Every structure is written in structure tokens, then in C-alpha cells.
Amino acid sequence: MTLVFDAHVRLGVGRDASLTAGELLAAMDRLGIDRALISPQERCLAVDHRDGNAFVAEAARRSGDRLLPYAVASPWRGRGALDELARAADDGAVALALDPAVQGFDLLDGQADPLVEAAAARGWPIYVRTGTPSFALPLQLAELAVRHPQASFVMGKSGATDFWIDARPALERAPNLYADTAYAPWDVVLAGLAAPPIGWGRLVFSTDMPNSAPAIERARHDAWPLGDEARAAILGGTLQRLLP
Amino acid sequence: MIDFHVHKPSEGGEGGRYDSRPYTAADYVAVMDELGIDVSVVFTLDGLWHPSPAENDRVAAWVAEAPDRLVAFGTVDPRLPDAAAETERCLGELGMRGLKFHPWIQAFCPHEACMDPIAEVAAAHGAPILFHDGTPPYSTPLQIAALARRHPDVPMVLGHGGLQDHWREAIAAVTGTPNLWICLCGTPNAGMRAVVARCPSQRLLFGTDAGLGAAVSQPFAAERIAEVEQLEIEEEVRAAMLDGNARALLRLEEQVG
Ligand SMILES: [Zn+2]
């Protein structure tokens, strides 16, 4: 059986879209998704980090191992952010989520580096949401990834929409960077990202619930004519391998 | 269903994009039949980089292969001295129903004065002007609204409903500008739900952006249609967005459709 592992979901009450753990698990059952990495909502990325970390840790504990928590902390908090990551790690976090557009930092200003190092030291992959100019762009993330070759980075949204054009050069620049399939049509975007020499081993599936239409995100990977090995890697195998 | 955002495939060659293989209008109409699309509003793709009368002629000729199923929009370089004259030729002689601009590719800001003579020609024909939107620096919804407010008689359309980052701004632009319409095309699902909930339902449109794909079959367009069909909104609003509103804007009953 192919493991289907959703690399990014936001749980909780958001500005314009919300999701409860019950709704998420029901959607996963409906769509044949085994596991999901869960981040707290935007408010908790921006300011209420401890609330957010506790919220997703609790949802993960109640999920019977189907939901795995991201840790969140603001790069602006300095030392305090590292303490928050340590607390989240003790609470079961397995990855770090960053969102420069929501958290208000520049990927290359140096502030995120201590968080990246702390995540890498724990063997956590790092999801970074991209696509919003001027400070959340695929090529900026690629430079951050080059600075931290020991860490693995997931390029959230792969630059959707008008920075899809940068996603391929970003993958070429940083071998430790992985492309997220959310929102990206397979025929116009994903086939180009997966073309040799990059290859399908650098793509990971996410639904990005509740911002997306999850059934559409999932169905894309059945519609895309791919070999079984490639499909299994994109749908979950690669992400599973990136986790500690 | 009326698809308000379709591109004639690239001619390929040096100026082409996406390794697009040209296909015929008849082949695309067969795909429309499969997708359940009655009428497509067709723009250039190559002409966004190289607008020219010759490309407008090619779009008009492509559409003329299936005049009851395809509607043509033209484009011009708004900085050229003959921009208004070419606009007049598109909407008059060539029988095009509107204009499409992609400001950041075409290198102008929507509210620059060079758009005024073009908008005046559009007003004389009652023709809408659609813009790519959702992308800074020169395709933001409020920049397009600024032009629309100078030309209240010209319906203008946000061609992408704000895309990923500007759909909240798009809602503000549309609700504050009576002649501004919004086409959901590449808007994320949460944004689509918010747009439908907060914008006047008679100014909602839908489009797929078909034509960007290399093959005539356009798998991603099928994905976008499935998404809008599954969107949790009132059926009456969906019907207006997918059909009635576009017919009214294009005045289709008067000539085709
Ligand atoms: Zn388009």
C-alpha cells in the first residue's frame, strides 16, 4: 500500500478558512490520506506561538499517530524562539514551519538561521511558505537552503502563482530543497519541476487544507501519468524519509 | 458554462512559451465539449509578449473557425501611438468582444494615462477590458480599480480574482467599484469562497486559463472546473457565475451562443 502523507495542513481558526481536527481526519479518511503534518493557524505563526504549539501537539496526541505537529516560533524572538522550539520538541513536534509573509521577516536577514540550525540539529524538515513577493520567494529560500546544507527544506506552494517560474531554478540551486505540489497543475507546473535531472524525488504532496480544495489536490496525483514508484514517492515516501 | 479566461495556444517557435504545440480551434472545441464548456473567451498568449495587429488577426481567424463557441478578445501595446486605432480595428472590423491586458508582462501600470484612449474606444463599443491581476508590481486589483473608476462606462474584469495574495484586495476593489467584475481563475479555494460571499453575485465570472498547457487536453482546466463545481455556494450564484453573468457582459444573446 502506498503511504499518503500530507506535508502541510493548518489546523484551527484562520482569517478566512478554519479546520478542526475532526474535520481534518474525516477529510483524510474520505481522500485516502494516511498521515498529515499539522501547523497551527496564521495567528499562531505571527504571535501566539506557544498556544499554537500546544494546540497542534494536543491534536496530534488524540489522532492515534495520524497527525504530526509542526513547531512554530518567530525569528524575531531570538533566544526565546529556541526555547519555544525545545518545548515543542518535548511535546512531539517533528518539523518546523516558517511563513515569512505572515511572520514578517526576510529569509536572508539572518534571523531565521538559529531556528533553522535548531531544526536541523533535531533532524526536522523545514516548511517555508513561498510565492509572496518580496520576502517569501523560492530563490531566496534556495539561498537559505544553500547556507544550511544539513537541513531539508520544503518550498511551500512552490511559488504559487506567479513565482512558479522560479521554482525550478530554486530546486537546481539547492539539492536540499523539495517542491510542494499544492495548487500546482501537473501539466503546466509539476511535470517541469520533476523533469530530469531534478526528478520526481524532489516533490512532496500537500493539500494545504483549509486554504485549498483538498479533493482536487489529492486527485491530481491520480490524474498525473506517473510510474508507481514516482507516485508513491511524491505522495508520501519522500516526506517520510525527511522526517526524524 | 462560459469560460471567461482561455488563451489561443502559442504558435511555438522562438517567441513561444511552454513548448506549446499549436492546436486548431476545432480540436479545442472538442475538448470544450468534454469539459462541458459552451463558450470560451479567447485571448492571445504570444501577443502578450509581442502585441501586434498580425497577432490580433490570428486570434480572430482562430475564433472564426467556431464562431458560435469562441469569442475573441484583442490586445495592443498601450504605449504605441496607434493603440487606440488598433483597438478600434479589433472591436470593429475584427468583431472582437473585448480586450485583454497582462500589465506586468506588457510593461505598464493599469492606471497609466496611456490606457485612457483605449478605454474610450472600449466605451464606444460597450466592450469589457480584462486584466491579469494578483501580482505586484503592476497588476494589483486596486491599480485596475483606479483605471475602472476613471472610466465608469467600461466594464473591467480582474482576470484572476486576486490569485494567492491579493484576493482580499480584490474584494475591496470590486465592492468599491461598480463597473469592476471578478473572474475566479487561479484564486485559492478559501479566496473563492470569500469572493463569492462578499462580492455582488452579478459581477462574478469564472475562467480556467486553458491554453497554457502543452497539449490540447488541458488537464489543469478540468481541475479548475471540478473545483468550481464542488465549491460550496448557492446553486443560483454558481449558475450566474458560470453562465448568466458572462452572457450579459458579452451581450451574447445578441449575436452568438
Ligand atoms: Zn491567462
TrEMBL record, chain A:
Metal-binding keyword on record: no
Domain Amidohydrolase-related: 47-243
Keywords from the UniProt entry: Hydrolase, Lyase
Highest taxon listed in the record's lineage: Bacteria
GO molecular function, one term: carboxy-lyase activity
PANTHER family: 2-AMINO-3-CARBOXYLMUCONATE-6-SEMIALDEHYDE DECARBOXYLASE
Protein name as it appears in the record: Putative TIM-barrel fold metal-dependent hydrolase
Organism: Conexibacter arvalis
Lineage: Bacteria, Bacillati, Actinomycetota, Thermoleophilia, Solirubrobacterales
From TrEMBL, chain B:
PANTHER family (alphabetical): 2-AMINO-3-CARBOXYLMUCONATE-6-SEMIALDEHYDE DECARBOXYLASE, CATALYTIC_ HYDROLASE
Protein name: Amidohydrolase-related domain-containing protein
InterPro entries documented for this protein: ACMSD, Amidohydro-rel, Metal_Hydrolase
Protein keywords: Lyase
SUPFAM superfamilies, per the entry: Metallo-dependent hydrolases (SSF51556)
Domain Amidohydrolase-related: 2-252
GO MF terms, alphabetically ordered: carboxy-lyase activity; hydrolase activity
Database matches in Pfam families: Amidohydro_2
